[in-house]
Specification:
Helix content: 25-40%
Number of strands: 12
Strand order of the largest sheet: 1-2-8-7-6-5-9-12-11-10
Order of helices and strands: EEHEEEEEEHEHEHEEH
Distance between the termini: 46 Å
CATH architecture: 3-Layer(aba) Sandwich
Shape: globular
């Protein structure tokens, strides 16, 4: 078990080394990842830290997510995705099938999937202009500015935004006030998650 450094990955990780990832849907998710990257919403900052990630539920449980520090690549292979099989909020520990670390936002993805079993896809992008405008849009859910990304507190914050009994798909895009440029969306399909982002951006342009 290892603990990743502050600034990239903040959780503890248990690697379960097994067979290479076998997952038939990875190319469809990768197609959407490339579309988001062409928008400039996935990439790498000048200091070398990548930003943005995508994930999808795995039929055997857990979810498949892009590995850490690969968002800037134009194309990914199945080896650049990892299977997150478990997350413990008590110890902030992610269990990953494979030798590569999952994205730094894996605990947040996990928290979103826990909201509703119908949620199948989660997107996390960065966009400075839209982030600033969406923070001023009262119709877009917003995490509190004191909540840092990739933490246990952020996982708990997701439940505050989407309380039990509500319909998460009514507002399936939210902005992270405490995570510079960070915006999330989710859906029953990749199309729904993607359209939530584009609709939010349309709304931001009108501000």
């Amino acid at each position: 078990m290892t603990t990743q450094q502050e600034g990239v990955v903040k959780y503890r990780v248990i690697h379960q080394v097994g067979q290479p990832l076998v997952w038939a849907d990875w190319q469809a998710l990768e197609g959407w990842r490339q579309k988001l990257q062409r928008q400039g919403w996935l990439g790498q900052y000048p200091e070398g830290i990548s930003y943005g990630n995508v994930s999808q539920r795995h039929p055997q449980g857990g979810f498949v997510i892009t590995a850490t520090q690969v968002a800037h690549r134009a194309k990914l292979t199945v080896d650049d995705y990892v299977h997150v099989t478990d997350y413990s909020p008590l110890t902030h520990t992610i269990t990953v099938n494979g030798s590569i670390c999952a994205s730094s936002e894996a605990p947040t993805h996990w928290a979103i999937y826990r909201l509703d079993p119908r949620i199948q896809v989660v997107f996390h992008i960065h966009c400075a202009i839209f982030w600033t405008k969406l923070l001023q849009n009262s119709q877009i859910p917003c995490t509190r500015p004191e909540i840092p990304y990739g933490t246990q507190a952020m996982a708990q914050e997701i439940r505050r935004l989407y309380p039990v009994g509500g319909d998460p798909f009514a507002r399936n895009c939210f902005v992270m006030a405490g995570h510079q440029d960070g915006i999330f969306s989710f859906g029953r399909t990749a199309e729904e998650a993607g359209q939530a982002l584009f609709q939010a951006m349309k709304s931001a342009r009108q501000c």
